[in-house]
């Protein structure tokens, strides 16, 4: 291939000129998928000579001292994602560039909201409300926490049927405890190849419809993992129907490197504008539903946005993605659809839940990163969808984290209301299991960061628990931190109880240990 300078596609590009005080340097940015640049907190300083700072979907700039903020955000994503760029001239915040790569000049662009206010947190809440209305997000009922079990983070792709059935028995045995799994989900490993979702690996000798029946008889919802828009080049579906997949300019199926081990590692993208491919999708999900599965973890969704040639020449990667989600929702209208690796806005209206963190692991660095990314999306909770912080890590076996660090993992479930785990409930220590029980019992609603300092990740979120003022507090640093009730916006003349550890009644000044979390409720 000859590399050379080429003219850029004439897509929709606009700029918004800013009128902010010269002291302005506040910059909030986010990404359109569950991953996040973990070395850069999402609130930082944008005060550099003649440069650019990027964000996806939404961006906020402004002046902290004068409390003057401007939010610019996409409120639709039917045909294109929206990329936003803050431009500095000299050191001043000069303008915000808006780019929609799949909207050609002259076509109708995705809608943009421009909001101004004195509290950037309230601007994000207003923005979320506008998006929900415009995209028709599915209603969320946060009245109770969603609990469940997932095989992945204990067994990974090596899970066998025997492993799963052992854990199913353990889940059933905990039906009358404080942590009773509502969903029991089989993750990657049951299938032959990526893409052949209804074909079972030999390590799973019992037909999945028998396992689904057993789940229903146990009173739990059966869950199954798929990557509905992706298949490997060794899969049966690809070998039999190569015409169902997105093609490159030479008419060949376009491949990407996936995360599976060879020979399952090269992936192709299902062309969801092809009527036959759409019916293939519907059949997969209808079959699982008939087998007793009503919770679908749909992974690898970002791969669906592959650029290339599709059956519908007028489709864009985003519009094709939404067509695929629509076909799945039509096939299983009442099922719970969880998006993983999801482009956030294009999922709205079709998914019930979405992952808002990268993959976690039973180790502090991964727990911390999942917590950071989850809590940076606080403004999506219970609005866009049920925000999934990935599985809670409470266990002591196959683990490299302390019980204090397990509390940090658990607090993400209390803030989001999604409390699935991969912990083996037949081996988990009692004091660790009690953390899962607290995750299932408590929920901080309408959570919002209290004091989010620039260039730092948040550590304190306020909301309500059973109608009472509550604070979820995290210390991700390596040193103890001291707080007063006043710092946490709690009344100094009313008792406060700590529920997560639990420490009982707290006084107006207290210390939180390193790598630990607290749940405070004011009576």
Which SSEs are present, and which pair or pack?
Layout: E1 11-17, E2 26-28, E3 43-45, E4 52-56, E5 58-63, E6 68-74, E7 83-89, E8 92-104, E9 112-117, H1 120-135, E10 146-150, H2 152-155, H3 161-173, E11 183-186, H4 208-217, E12 221-226, E13 230-232, H5 236-240, E14 255-257, E15 266-269, H6 275-290, E16 293-298, H7 317-331, E17 336-339, H8 344-347, E18 353-355, H9 364-376, E19 386-388, H10 403-416, E20 418-421, H11 430-441, E21 445-449, E22 460-465, E23 468-475, E24 481-484, E25 496-498, E26 504-506, E27 509-512, E28 516-522
Parallel strand pairs: 10-11, 10-20, 11-12, 12-16, 16-17, 17-18, 18-19
Antiparallel strand pairs: 1-8, 2-3, 2-5, 4-7, 5-6, 6-9, 7-8, 13-15, 14-15, 21-22, 22-23, 23-28, 24-27, 25-26, 25-28
Helix pairs in contact: 6-7, 9-10, 10-11
Explain the overall architecture:
With 523 residues, the chain is an alpha+beta fold. 23% of the residues lie in helices and 27% in strands. The strands form six sheets. The chain has an eight-stranded parallel sheet with strand order 19-18-17-16-12-11-10-20. Strands 21-22-23-28-25-26 form a six-stranded antiparallel sheet, with helices on one face. Strands 3-2-5-6-9 form a five-stranded antiparallel sheet, with helices on one face. Helix 6 runs parallel beside helix 7, helix 9 runs parallel beside helix 10 (403-416) and helix 10 (403-416) packs parallel to helix 11 (430-441). The model has no long low-confidence stretch (mean pLDDT 95).
